[in-house]
Every structure is written in C-alpha cells, then in structure tokens.
From TrEMBL:
InterPro entries: ABC_ATPase_C, ABC_ATPase_put, ABC_N, MRB1590-like_C, P-loop_NTPase. The lineage of its organism: Bacteria, Bacillati, Actinomycetota, Actinomycetes, Mycobacteriales. SUPFAM superfamilies: P-loop containing nucleoside triphosphate hydrolases. This is ATPase of the ABC class. Residues 1-140 form the ATPase of the ABC class N-terminal domain. Residues 426-518 form the MRB1590-like C-terminal domain. Residues 149-399 form the ATPase of the ABC class C-terminal domain. PANTHER family: ATPASE.
Length: 518
C-alpha cells in the first residue's frame, strides 16, 4: 500500500500516459488490488480495476452472494464521483461486477484516474486509490450478511422448479406495478395481489394464483392491471431481489414475451403457419425481409420463440398487430384475399400438438374466449376467475389444423462490416447493440432487463461472428455463445459491465441481426 501510494504521488504532474505503468497487482493486506486496464486519456472510458478477497460466505449459492456484494459496494461507492461499479437492478443474475472464483471474490469496478488537463494529479490519485477505495470497500463489508438474500434466491429457484402443471405463479401479497413507467422499483401504496379462490394453489410453501398450462386469456377494462400482470409474468423468468414485490412471482424459465415490431429484419423464418402468401410472392416458409410489417414481424417472432423451444408465449394486445391476433366474420367477408390465419385460430393447436401454452391479454376482443382454458378478469387490480362465465358466452370453434413447428435454421453467415479494426460488439443502450457498422435493434426483445445484459448479449454476438461454421443451428450457436459470455464473466480478465442473458435473448438478438444469413 505504502509503495503504491508513493508511486502514485511520484506520478504527479507527469503526462497522463504515465498512469499505464500502474498496471499490476498490489497487496493491500486484507485484499489484493489489481489495476487491469488504464484509460489512455482523461476523457476515455474509466480505468478497470478489481479487488480479490476471500468469499465471506463460501457455503452459499454464489449468485445471490455476489449480487449482494455488488449492491453493497455500489452503495458504498455512491457519492464517490470517480469510483463506480455496475450495480444490479431488480433481477438477481450473474454479473461481472462480482464473481466467486474458487472461493475468492473478484469485485470489478471502474476508476476515473484524476487529471488536470492531460497532467496526472498524483496526490489525488493516491488518495483515491489508497484511502477512499479501501475505506469504501471496508464500509461495504461492514456487517455484510447475505443470508436473507440467499434464502430468497433458493426459495425462488425451488418455486420455479415446482411449477408443475402451472406456467406461472403469483403469490398473494405480491406487488406487481412499478413506481413509474421508467422505474423498476415497486409502486408504493399499490393494491397487493390476491388470488381468486378457484385458482389458489400452494407452491413450495407459498400460496397464490397458479396459471395453469394451456391457453389463458386475461380480460378486463382499460387501466385495470392486465399489462402489469403480464409484465410480471414475463420477468418471472428471473429471480428478484429482496423487497422487489415480485419475489414470489415465478414463471416457466422458457417463457417468451412476443410482440409486433414493424421494421425488424427477418432471416429465413417459416411463418406459413400464420401467413400463407404475400403480395410480393415471397416464400413464407422461408420468409426473409429487411423491413417486416406488424403481422409478419409478430409471426416471425412467435416462430423464433418456438424454434428456441419456448414452452410459454406471453402476448399483450397493447403491443400486438390486430390482424395477427384476430379476424372478425364481417372482415372475412369483406377481405377475401387475406393470407393471415390469426393467432386465435392457432393457439389451441399449439397447445394440443406441442404442449406450448399461451397467455394473452385481450381486453378489446372476445375472440380468444372461445379458445381459452382459463379466463382471468382483472378488476381494480384484482384477478377474478372468469372461466365459467366465459364458457357460457363462448361459441363453439372448429378443430384447429395441426401446428407444424419450425425446422431449426442453420446459420450460414453473420456478415458484419467492420472499419479498419475489428471491434467487439457493444451495447449502445439497453435496446441497441453496435456491431461493426451495424446497429442491432433489440428494443422489442421484452425480457432484456438492462444495458449490461445487452452488453452480455453483444459479447455473445461477437462470439457467434467468430464461430459460424455453416452447419450449426442458430439456437445451438446462441447457447454456446451464452456460455462464452458466462466464461467472460467468470474469467480472469475484467470484462467491463456484463450481466448474463438467457440463451433465448441471444437467439432473438441474432435473429434481428441484419448480417444474419441462414
Ligand atoms: P391495463 O393493461 O389493464 O390497461 P395496466 O397494467 O397498464 O392496465 O395498469 C394501469 C395502471 O395501473 C398502471 O399505471 C399501473 O402501474 C397501475 N397498476 C397496476 N396494477 C396495480 C396495483 N395492483 N395497484 C395499484 N396500481 C396498479
Ligand atoms: Mg395494457
């Protein structure tokens, strides 16, 4: 510590590049500090450093322990302008901010090395790294006890594993709405969730509403909490942190939230289950476009979810293409050249033939009632079991034609134009990946929770670019690429801000890449 202090003060007044000499490892007593990468100038992204120390809770599941460490360090760094860590959001996921490597925690963070103009401020740097940083880390571990967080994490895992005949479960007392449209914190003063008697079940010791497999329709008036419920289901594939309100809202881990997304690129997707022909004469069994419409984009996204073996589809009318969802009798008479078989005429076959469940929010049209196994009515944020009432209103429907699942697409190429130097894809924001000269728009991939998770997906795309061999299915590449992101997160190098994605989201990002050839 003393030698690092004097080395830093000795750099005072030197050109900024002299900071580079600091790269290396330093023994700080209770922990080791590693300076991994030094920024090239004061305006570049901050320098990367990490500390290593023994895991104080080595017998616990490392994911919630590391998550708690990252949160504690983020709290301790708050107020320090020049030291930062990528802080977890409401979901508890493997994060590069903290990992356990053989019983040693690696806590990775960022430091803005101080300068005046382009000259090193050595004394300020010494103070920052040798006083402020160890003090903050000391604070973070003061009274550190991850027990409650670990128990909660394990409980959520148990519940998801115990879903059985349910696609999802929401506990009585859960708080589903968020504080604002842009915040993922719980809304204060919200109406707690309460299961209707008929759907109440007990999962791993918790009581609440089970949503059975099959076709479920959520109905209700506008502003009564339908989309809020669906969004909770969609993020129920992840574990949530303490006091989130959705801790015990768990969903089948393969569930995919699908929406319309006009303008998206589609590469070689068989959408013929929904769309038999197009005015361009394009082959809908191998649909390729740089600019999909509302209905074709949603058909493609459903087929891609099925290709990736999703067992549950989550669909909200608010974000769907109406002509993809339903078609009424009069419109059938008026528009005879309609090539679309809407979702309402396919969902039963999907369940009957392949056991794929669908949960649909449909407040505006009664068509889905005819094909539903379960109908949940949201009224003043309270669910009511409307299945019996809906059955009385339901009209008989014809047996649906068999549903043919898509064949796996083989990736032929991921063509990316690079500038002079090939660069790893990066997250521009939570919804955009910059890959070479291409922007991959994943803003409609609903279950991506943060920019750092998008960064995790971005690194996976980089791996795919390097490993396309012309004979591997897209979903297999996505899985291998996700494992590569995991290896980066758990590796020796400071990988920057990264959070683990599901292989599904990697597959969906790949599917939207305009350089994808299948
Ligand atoms: P819908 O999809 O039925 O139109 P939303 O789910 O969008 O309704 O919810 C409408 C509003 O009600 C949102 O502002 C949401 O945050 C709020 N809200 C949802 N559930 C609750 C609840 N349990 N308690 C209080 N407010 C809620
Ligand atoms: Mg809504």
């Amino acid at each position: 510590m003393a030698s690092l202090y004097s080395r830093l003060t000795a750099l005072d007044g030197k050109g900024y590049g002299a900071y580079k000499s600091l790269v290396g490892r330093y023994d700080l007593g209770r922990m080791t500090l590693a300076i991994d990468r030094v920024q090239s100038d004061p305006y570049a992204p901050p320098s990367k450093m990490h500390v290593e120390l023994p895991n104080p809770a080595p017998d616990f599941h490392p994911v919630p322990v590391c998550d708690q460490v990252a949160r504690a360090v983020a709290r301790a760094f708050r107020g320090h302008r020049d030291i930062s860590i990528d802080s977890p959001g409401q979901e508890v996921l493997p994060t590069a901010s903290c990992v356990d490597r053989n019983g040693t925690l690696h806590i990775r963070f960022f430091v803005q090395l101080p300068a005046r103009g382009r000259r090193i401020l050595g004394r300020a740097a010494a103070h920052l790294i040798c006083d402020d940083l160890p003090d903050a880390l000391e604070d973070a571990f003061e009274g550190f006890d991850p027990t409650a967080a670990v128990q909660l994490y394990n409980q959520q895992e148990r519940m998801r594993a115990a879903l059985g005949e349910n696609v999802a479960f929401i506990a009585d007392g859960a708080i589903l709405p968020r504080a604002t449209g842009t915040s993922s914190l719980p809304l204060t003063g919200a109406v707690p969730f309460r299961s209707p008697e008929s759907l109440r079940t007990n999962i791993a010791g918790v009581t609440g509403m089970g949503i059975p497999r099959g076709v479920t329709v959520i109905v209700g008036g506008g502003f009564h909490g339908k989309s809020t419920l669906l969004n909770a289901l969609s993020l129920g594939v992840y574990n949530h942190t303490l006091a989130d309100g959705r801790e015990y809202a768990v969903t089948n881990p393969t569930a995919v939230h699908v929406r319309a997304e006009d303008g998206r690129a589609v590469a070689g997707v068989d959408i013929s289950e929904f769309i038999s022909s197009l005015p361009t004469g394009a082959d809908t069994t191998h649909f390729t476009t740089a600019n999909a419409s509302g209905s074709t984009s949603q058909a493609a996204s459903v087929m891609e979810a099925l290709e990736a073996c999703a067992e549950v589809l989550l669909i909200d009318e608010d974000t769907s293409a109406t002509n993809f969802m339903i078609r009424d009798a009069r419109m059938k008479k008026l528009v005879t050249a309609e090539p679309i078989t809407p979702l309402v005429d396919r969902v039963r076959a999907l369940w009957r033939d392949h056991g794929v469940s669908t949960v649909i929010v449909a407040g505006g049209s009664s068509a889905f009632i005819d094909v539903a196994d379960t109908v949940i009515a949201m009224e003043d944020y309270e669910p009511r079991d409307a299945t019996a009432a809906a059955k009385e209103l339901a009209e008989p429907v014809e047996e649906q034609a068999p549903f043919v699942l898509p064949k796996p697409r083989i990736v032929a190429a991921l063509k990316t134009q690079h500038g002079k130097r090939k660069k790893q894809p990066q997250a521009k924001d939570a919804g955009t990946i910059r890959h070479g000269k291409e922007n991959v728009d994943i803003s409609a991939v609903e279950q991506v929770v943060s920019r750092s998770q998008t960064a995790g997906i971005a690194r996976a795309l980089g791996w795919v670019e390097d490993h396309v061999d012309g004979r591997t299915p897209l979903t297999q590449l996505a899985e291998d690429a996700t494992a590569a992101t995991s290896a980066l997160i758990h590796g020796d190098d400071h990988p920057g801000a990264l959070v683990m994605p599901r292989p599904l989201e990697v597959a969906f990002a790949l599917s939207r890449h305009r350089g994808l050839k299948v």
